[in-house]
Structure formats: structure tokens, C-alpha cells
Amino acid sequence: MRESIVWDITDVRLIVELAHRRSFSQVAGLLRIPRTSVSKRLMAIEHRAGTRLFERTTRRVNVTAAGEIMAIRCATILEELEMASQSLEGLTGKPKGELRITAPFILGQALLGPLIPEFMRKHPEVCPLLNLTNQRGDMISEGVDVSVRLGPLADSSLIAKAVGKVDAGLYLAKSASNKAPFKHLPRAVELSALSDLPFLMLGRADESANEIFVFRADDPKANPVEKRLAVKTILKTNDPQTLLNAALDGLGFVVLPMMSAAPCVNEGKLIQILPNWLSRRSEVFLVTASRRHQRPAVKAFIEFVSERLARPVYPGTRSSRSTS
């Protein structure tokens, strides 16, 4: 008679994650156990099951047909356990427990940075786990509760709530405004005069950055007048702090979300160039996998951020150099 399989939750997660990630080291890190424990647990599971679930070599991990079936069943178990946990938590109606949040670097630092402490004071039993990344991963497989994103969503299966808009402006270090090559700019500078001057851009290094897009900020029409300006990009990075440091060092104009630039503008370190024009406007979304079975902690976070972002996302700033 075949020995019955006795499972614990770690074994169930191990099968699901190994089928998804195909990496012993990644699964070990996710489950917070040694890599050797992953191998030993898998061997014990396969011994009790009487069949091989994964084929592994020194370089690859492949799922067998039996492993695929087992992974699907285990994923269902995890989903049922999560739903049961959410149902129990929902009975109390009190936000608590871990809350996994992801956001791009610049939104996490400039937007969520000030909001998270306030949220924690309001809901002391919630433990936010904030991961800043510019890569859009799989929310479901990674166990993410809320993802803060910019722009429209490609995955229609996710639920997105628009909570605000982020405008990006053009800035220059005040210390550089009286130095070459910037000091000869007229007070009422035109967009075309900037095309041969150095720019610092926020974005992925593998993307082209030879132009920015602008539109008139005070235009009330749904489709404001747009202009395209080719610029000389001397630095492009997805790290906003590196970009800001380079800008404050006077290396060039910098395109930054206004919420990120506002502290330096208020301190007199940056001045906004062409305040009647914006380089970009992006909508902010809070994304969840589903509206159903949302834990109180998730609902509380969405309500909290939505309420805060109903106000302007950034303090208003004006510049000494503007269009006429």
C-alpha cells in the first residue's frame, strides 16, 4: 500500500513556486529556507508520491506532466487558504496583517514615502511591505496586494482605480542658471532654444531618450496643444536620486515629476523652466487582482491613498524663467 502524502503549507508553496520560477535558489529565497532544504523537501514529496515531479540538471529545472498537475492542484489549495483567511479577517472588519505593495521608484519615494507613515499611524496593526521596482511583475504569483502604477494597463484582468495625476516639468539648478551654457538664455525663453542644451532624463537605459513631449499646462481643452522637442540627452537613468544629484550639480536641464522637484524648488535649489508647459502628464492607478475577497487592509490602503490623492499630487511651483 502506497504511503499517504502528508503535506504542510511550505511543501504546497514549494511545488507552486518551483513550477513557476524553475529555480531552486529563487524558491529558497522566497520561502526563506536553505537551498538544500528545497531539494530535500522535493525529494521527500516525490518519494511519497511515487513519481518524479521535476527534472533537474545543474542548469535547468523542468516540470514533468505529473508536476504540472500537482502544481495546479497546489495552486488551488493556496487560493482556497487565502480566501478562507480573507473571509475570517473580513469578519472583524479591522485592517491588520502584512500588506504587500509595489511601486516604481519615483512614485514610491516621492508619493508613498510621505503617505506610508501616516497610514501606519492610522492602522497600527497593518505591516506594509513596500517593494520599489520599475519592472511590472506578476501580481498574483508574487502575492502583491496593491501595485501603484502610471499610465494605462495592458492586463485587462486586473482591477485598476485611477486616484490622481502626476505632472512632470522642466528644471535647472539655480547654481547653473548663471553659468555656461545656460546663462545666455533669455528670460522669456522659447522651447526651440533648448534643443542644443544638455538634458538629464528619467527612464530605462535601454529606451531612446532623444526627445521629450510637452503640452500647455493651462489649456482647458481635452486635447491641449502639443509640441515635440528633440533634445541632447547626456544622462538617462531610472534612479531619480542619481538624476537629481546630476541636476543639482548643474550638468543640465532635468525632467522630473513636480512632486519630486517641489522640495528642491521650495529650498531654492531648482528653478522651473517654462512653467506654462509640462513635459508629461501621467495618471496614477492603484491596481489589485480582484475586487472580491479584498482584505480590510487592502481596502483601507486604497481608500486612504485615494483620499490623499484627491488633493494635488504636488505643491504648485513657479519659475523665474517663463514663456511670454
Description:
The chain is an alpha/beta fold and 324 residues long. It folds into 2 domains: 9-84, Winged helix-like DNA-binding domain superfamily/Winged helix DNA-binding domain (Arc Repressor Mutant, subunit A, Orthogonal Bundle), CATH 1.10.10; 136-289 and 309-324, 3-Layer(aba) Sandwich (D-Maltodextrin-Binding Protein, domain 2). Helix content is 36%, strand content 25%. It is built from 9 helices and 14 strands. The strands form 3 sheets. Strands 3, 4, 5, 6, 7, 10, 11, 12 and 14 form a 9-stranded mixed β-sheet that branches. It has a 3-stranded antiparallel β-sheet with strand order 9-8-13, with no helix packed on it. A two-stranded antiparallel ribbon has the order 1-2. A hairpin with a 4-residue loop joins strand 1 (54-56) and strand 2 (61-63). Helix 2 packs across helix 3. The protein starts with 8 loop residues before the first helix and ends in a 15-residue tail after the last helix.
